[in-house]
Amino acid sequence: MIPVSAVYADLPACLRPFLSGESERPVVHCWQRTVAARLGDAGVATVNLAIDSVKERKELPKALEPIRSYFDYLVKRQHHYGYSVMLNINICRTNIDDVRLLTEIAHDNGVATDYHINESPMTEQTHFQHLDENSTYLTPEDWPKVDELLDWLDAKRHNEGYKMVNQSKHMRDMKLLMRGEVPPWKCRAGQNSLIIRTDGTLAPCFPMYSATHDWGAVGAHKFDVQQLDEMKRDCSKHCLSTCNYILAYCYDARRVIKWTLKQAIHGFRGATDTIQ
Q1: Rounded to whole angstroms, how far apart are CA atoms 264 and 268?
Q2: Is residue 128 in some structural domain?
Q3: I need a labelling partner for 227 at 20 to 30 A (CA). Which of 7, 16, 21, 171 fits?
Q4: Cα dist from 97 to 143, 181, 204, whole Å
């Protein structure tokens, strides 16, 4: 058993009066400072916030409003600690307007965004209870609205300088993903990205979190490129992972050189667009 005194000693100083009953002041600002400081001191490069809605809803619990004060503080302190902040937004049938609002909020705060299309689980997830009658899944009647949204996003990037991680081609390919027509692409899962499960075992990507294949554990991976390539011949037809799609673009020397030259033309004064 850990002594209470030891736990108390490890608490941020601003929390101790509250927990000891000496103060009834809210501690939210203390937590803001503590979380931001720990992230910064740990050397975190980017804080990627997954937010799908402005206001919290039952079907969209990852909302900005409940954590707005934390978001504002993270943005405020990013230059002090050297990390960057970005919003990761999942496009589904119930948040089209929210995607636009979150994009504008991100732009107003000078942070980047990335987007992906809401997809059903690729492998069986025994714990997932919302496979049927899920209000967030896109249907054919939603396709025109999502097409328009993706065009709006790409125009914001090219015409107004909004910071977006997705390539233009990725957004065009999202339209095909909705229609079950994913074009061939070179996924880097298990080669330049991986998932660490809560028990320390590894998987190449989130969709394969529940897969039974043994890819090893932390410190002893068993990723085999031949096995991964064989698996991806099928799964890449049903997936368009934003993370791995961008990695595939970055592992193309021609595109990287072109992007670097573009930054040089602008004097390396902040990144201009993403690798296209």
Answers
A1: 5
A2: yes
A3: 171
A4: 15, 26, 33
Q: Does residue 30 belong to any structural domain of this protein?
A: yes
Per the domain annotation, does 50 fall within a domain? yes
Token reading at 144: 């025109």
Cα–Cα distance for residue pair 39/37, rounded to 1 Å? 5
Q: Side chain identity at 13, as an amino acid letter?
A: A
CB–CB of 79/87 below 8 Å? Answer: no
Return d(Cα 17, Cα 13) in angstroms, integer. 8
Angle between helices 143-160 and 96-108 (to 10 degrees): 10
The parent domain of residue 122 ranges over: 18-182
Tell me, yes or no, whether 195 lies in a domain.
no
Count of domains for the chain: 1
pLDDT per residue as tens digits for the range 114-159? 999 887 544 455 544 544 456 788 889 999 999 999 999 999 998 9
The answer to pTM > 0.85 is no
Q: Are 87 and 98 spatial neighbours (Cβ–Cβ below 8 Å)?
A: no
Instruction: Give me the residue label for tokens 């939603």.
Output: 142
* Of 65, 94, 71, 259, nearest in space to 165 by CA: 259
- The span from the CA of 216 to the CA of 48, in Å, is 26
Helices (H) and strands (E) in the chain, counts: 10, 7
Beta strands in 122-166 (DSSP E): none
Handedness of CA 244, 249, 252, 253 (dihedral sign): negative
CA distance 131 to 122: 11
Residue 97 token pair: 């307007």
Nearest-angstrom CA–CA distance, 141 and 146? 10
